[in-house]
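$ ./design --mode recover --in tokens.txt
reading tokens...
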């Protein structure tokens, strides 16, 4: 994974927990632990700088539990390996989206012709509404 023009491999810092998945699956659900929970402790990460940790803690606050672990849960398939891969992909997309810097807004002014056009349409609409009033005999 690439963060701020450097390649980072989080594999050593990720922990995976498995448990029995809910939902359809027949006897497989009762026997096999296919649900995968990926956990990553942001504060203890040696691969992230302090600024990057602050960004992640701010942007991913709803995915971080009380212990400071970023959690990604996957139970989409009946295979533990596929769920592990999907959880890894979700983790990577979460980090990529968190590190994208939003574009700065450029202030713009409406042109004179746009202001004139807006005022003309307002005047036209106003006249139209006045014509809807009561008629005096």
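writing sequence...
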């Amino acid at each position: 994974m690439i963060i701020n023009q450097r390649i980072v491999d989080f594999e050593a810092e990720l922990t995976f927990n498995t448990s029995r998945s809910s939902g359809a699956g027949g006897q497989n659900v009762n026997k096999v632990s296919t649900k995968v929970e990926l956990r990553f402790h942001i504060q203890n990460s040696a691969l992230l700088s302090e600024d990057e940790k602050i960004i992640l803690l701010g942007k991913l606050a709803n995915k971080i539990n009380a212990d400071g672990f970023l959690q990604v849960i996957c139970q989409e398939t009946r295979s533990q390996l596929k769920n592990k891969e999907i959880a890894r992909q979700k983790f990577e997309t979460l980090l990529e989206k968190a590190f994208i810097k939003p574009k700065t807004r450029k202030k713009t002014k409406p042109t004179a012709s746009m202001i004139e056009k807006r005022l003309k349409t307002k005047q036209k609409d106003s006249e139209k509404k006045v014509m809807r009033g009561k008629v005096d005999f």
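exit 0
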